[in-house]
Design brief:
about 35% helix; ligase; Rossmann fold; ATP binding; about 25% strand; Succinyl-CoA_synth-like; ATP-grasp; 37 strands
């Protein structure tokens, strides 16, 4: 199997040429070439400039071709007008990558397109234009336009802004923080976030990743790479442009930013809101700071600072720990009943180091206390240094407790703050900053739970429903329809399992009376018009009609009112349904809309006219399962309305979760849906039911063969599930892997013979580590696939075979692996798995499938021949064969 990433030659070059290297003081070429010399670049370094014979004492070549050998990476600091010609030189001389430091300026789009076309024709990958460059301290690679010395470390920085790179590097130098890699993307016309994250996720020297984002070019690739990297490494992200300058609400976040927030939450990424938070998060990560739960206890020697911290925690949704009765009693004894003990815990202005020490020890014994914020104000009776030393001792003593400090003030606390920093205990100047750090870093661990979730239809009933819904939509598209009636909208929802009220349409008053009699009184009458989004606001709803005369009058009243208010609206008649009397019901609204970047988005808020602004809603990207639906509910302001209140019983949250999942399935399986609104969805103790709905569809599906191309996150591919029958009648199911398959996959590995393990991994492996099990079961279906062959034994699913592919380093082909349990190797399981895997890879458009097979594995090689793989000599090892099957082209 190939092991190197296709961008390895960019980030781990053996040779670098600086095009535009110069003796000119303060020129970009001189700065970059000097940085490479000073850093002691480990490979071959070349200066290129037709105007110089030498640069900084090194021979200077007039052109790339003059070097006389291929170069891995060219760093280009030449005028913009020469860029296209230089990229042509790169192609002719075998340069594999070009880092373009030169900026093309505003209006340079045409030049960028020409450069990219030239690079693709020449087989050259581009970073930039306008990139600050790249830095890999462990390789002596400082090919960046900066005068800052970058130290080594385990933190990677990836930024679209060169200015942000400079700011972070300057801060890092002052705070003694080192980097494993620094990558400035800038324009991202070619190499983008996705590929860089791919590389860093598997880079052994990188443990944490910081991102600065301006814009996203490909949401699917971006989300795919984020989710893949976040499964193994913490990602901290800062994005500019949080507010919509055209918003009617001054200072409000834009809808696109709220959607971006939801996407980052789903990706398991910690999003920070400013440069300060990014710095503090970076420093905390580098020091091993690990708050795993987003709740906090606060101890202070002043009521004001404690209240400030509590206010900020509640602003962020970080709960304050409810102290146990035992903890409160112990604290009461400590304080001598001079003040009420609660959270925040105010020790008083006279608190000394011993009082702090005892209070922290008491709090550490409370099982509910995971994170503790220690605040100190420089009172006359408190020695900041003594308290700092006590905290440092306790940090080593109480390993299960995450400590964070805030030493407020200046000169009086400077020495204490320095001691805490040296002991790698996070310390801040303001309570708000400390709380923000706890909230942000703990968000990484909250996000891991969401990353484990796979969503998508997993049952045959759901797939059958989506098939029926597709037929309904295709019928409407054939009629050149876009806006569906309430009856049609409910039919679509019903096909995905949503409980809906029965609706019938009447075109005139006479028909309305007969329909009402058929439905049964009392009834509700609503205007049926594709042009009216909010029927109530248009005067188009009448409730609790109890007789034919009332129906007759209501029909004329509704139609007359709507025509008077909206004379241009198309009126098809009225819809009639049973009057639903749910006195304990909560009216909610579920919406689906398309975001320009992330595709379909689901929102949840209160129903009716008062919930239009998105600040009252919560957002999530489909696909969703029940766990993800529960997370959406819990993050919505309406969540508190669902609980028991006085005589009002608690609403059925399970029914709401199921309704949200049904809407998610619809949004995933029907790419034609542009808008969907369920309003109201009534939820009470008896369940949930759709009272009204509206759907708008596009005239035609999206182009391309990927049925989920409209989504930023690939759903669980239930369409790949199939069964076949063995000769003895037993049934085998083949399906994609899920995270909950960890135990069966481990059992499958444990049951393999030593020979079977060696054939699969090509090395002696006695056990699968938890990390390997997670890697095998927590996959991104957009970029890799793992199929399991499963047989039911005693009501328990048993894995008897596994086939998987992953994206190869070239980014266009996939590498496969196959294993079948020893006792099942005579039943054709391997061939069935490989056939399904090949079909899947071909459907995704990958160029080829390839892999390495031990030359001694005759059985596997025979199967490869039967499946039309070419069997080739391995380029490096005689004990292996390299097998390749073209899938397209």
């Amino acid at each position: 199997m190939l092991t190197s990433h296709h961008l390895s030659s960019l980030f781990e070059p053996d040779s670098v040429a600086v095009v535009g290297a110069s003796e000119q003081p303060h020129s970009a070429g001189r700065v970059i070439f000097k940085n490479l010399l000073d850093a002691g670049f480990h490979g071959h370094l070349y200066a290129v400039n037709p105007k110089h014979e030498t640069v900084l004492g090194q021979t200077c070549h007039h052109a790339l071709e003059d070097i006389g050998r291929p170069v891995d990476t060219a760093v280009i600091a030449a005028p913009a007008r020469t860029l296209n010609a230089i990229i042509q030189q790169c192609g002719r001389s075998g340069v594999r990558n070009a880092v373009i430091v030169t900026s093309v300026g505003e209006g340079g789009g045409q030049l960028e397109r020409r450069i990219l076309e030239t690079a693709r024709h020449a087989g050259v990958r581009l970073l930039g234009p306008g990139s600050l460059g790249i830095v890999r301290p462990d390789r002596g690679l400082n090919a960046a336009l900066t005068k800052i010395a970058v130290g080594g470390g385990d933190l990677a920085l990836v930024s679209q802004s060169g200015a942000m790179c400079s700011v972070v590097l300057d801060w890092a130098e002052a705070n003694h923080v080192g980097f494993s890699a620094v990558v400035s993307l800038s324009s991202t016309i070619d190499v983008d976030f996705g590929e860089v994250l791919d590389y860093l996720a598997h880079d052994d020297r990188t443990r944490y990743i910081l991102l600065y984002v301006d814009h996203i070019r490909n949401a699917r690739h971006f989300m795919s790479a984020l989710r893949s990297a976040a499964r193994v490494k913490p990602l901290i992200l800062l994005k500019a442009g949080r507010h919509d300058r055209g918003s009617e609400v001054a200072g409000s976040a834009s809808l696109s930013d709220v959607v971006f927030d939801a996407a980052m939450r789903r990706a398991g990424v910690v999003r920070v809101q400013n440069i300060g938070q990014l710095f503090f998060a970076a420093k905390a990560l580098a020091s091993g700071f690990r708050p795993r739960v987003d709740r906090v206890a606060i101890v202070t020697n002043g009521g004001g600072p404690g209240t400030m911290a509590a206010d900020r925690a509640l602003d962020l949704g970080t709960p304050l720990v409810e102290l146990s009765a035992e903890t409160v009693a112990a604290l009461d004894r400590l304080s001598g009943a001079t003040r009420r003990c609660s959270n925040p815990l105010d020790l008083g202005g006279e608190a000394d180091a011993e009082r702090y020490r005892e209070a922290i020890r008491i709090l550490a014994k409370d099982p509910a206390v995971d994170n503790l914020l220690v605040i100190l104000s420089p009172h006359a009776m408190t020695d900041p240094v003594d308290v700092a030393r006590a905290v440092i001792e306790l940090a080593a003593e109480t390993r299960g407790l995450t400590l964070c400090c805030c030493w407020m003030g200046g000169g009086q606390v400077a020495e204490a703050r320095k001691l805490l920093e040296q002991a790698e205990v996070p310390v801040f100047r303001t309570p708000e900053t400390a709380v923000e750090l706890l909230h942000n870093i703990s968000g990484f661990y909250r996000g891991q739970a969401l990353l484990l979730q796979t969503a998508g239809q997993t049952g045959s009933a759901g797939q059958a429903g989506s098939g029926g819904a597709r037929m309904l939509v295709e019928t409407l598209l054939g009629q050149r329809r876009s806006a569906l009636s309430a009856m049609e909208s409910k039919a679509l929802l019903r096909s995905f399992g949503m409980p809906v009220t029965q609706t019938m349409v009447a075109r005139d008053a006479t028909e309305a009376m007969f329909v009402a009699e058929q439905v049964g009184f009392p009834v509700v009458m609503k205007i049926d018009s594709p042009d009216l989004v909010h029927k109530a606001a248009a005067g188009g709803i009448r409730l609790n009609l109890v007789g034919t005369e009332a129906v007759w009058n209501a029909f004329h009243d509704i139609v007359g009112t709507v025509r008077a208010r909206y004379p241009e609206a198309q009126i098809n008649g009225v819809s009639i349904e049973s009057y639903l009397h749910r006195p304990n019901g909560r009216e909610l609204r579920i919406r689906v809309f398309r975001d320009a970047v992330f595709g379909p988005v689901i929102s949840l808020g209160a129903g009716g006219l008062t919930s239009d602004h998105f600040s009252n809603q919560a957002f999530a990207l489909p696909p969703l399962n029940k766990v993800l639906a529960r997370d959406l509910i819990d993050s919505a302001p309406v969540a508190r309305l669902l609980d028991r209140y006085h005589d009002l019983p608690a609403a059925d949250r399970g029914a709401l979760e199921a309704a949200i999942v049904s809407v998610s399935d619809l949004a995933s399986e029907l790419p034609w849906v542009r808008e969907l609104e369920v309003d109201p969805l009534i939820v009470d103790e008896a369940g949930a039911i759709v009272v009204d709905a509206r759907v708008v569809i596009d005239q035609g599906p999206p182009a391309g063969g990927d049925r989920y191309a409209h989504m930023a996150i690939h759903p669980y591919p239930a369409n790949l599930i199939h069964e076949f029958k063995l000769a003895d009648g037993r049934r085998v199911r083949i399906r994609p892997v899920r995270p909950e398959d960890a135990a069966p996959v481990q059992a499958f590995f444990d049951g393999l013979s030593r020979e079977a393990r060696y054939y699969r991994f090509m090395e002696e492996i006695d056990e699968l580590s938890p990390t390997m099990v997670a890697r095998f079961t927590q996959i991104d279906y957009d970029r890799e696939m793992a199929l399991l062959a499963i047989i039911a034994e005693g009501g328990i699913d048993k894995v008897i075979g596994s086939a998987r592919y992953a994206l190869a380093p070239d980014g266009e082909s996939v590498e496969f692996a196959l294993a079948v349990a020893d006792e099942w190797q005579r039943y054709g399981i391997g061939r069935r798995l490989m056939g399904a895997l090949i079909d899947c890879a071909r459907g995704k458009g990958w160029r080829s499938m390839e892999g390495d097979v031990l030359a001694s594995n005759a059985k596997m090689l025979r199967m490869m021949q039967a499946l039309a793989f070419k069997i080739l000599p391995h380029p490096e090892q005689s004990t292996l064969k390299h097998v390749v099957k073209r899938l397209r082209g």
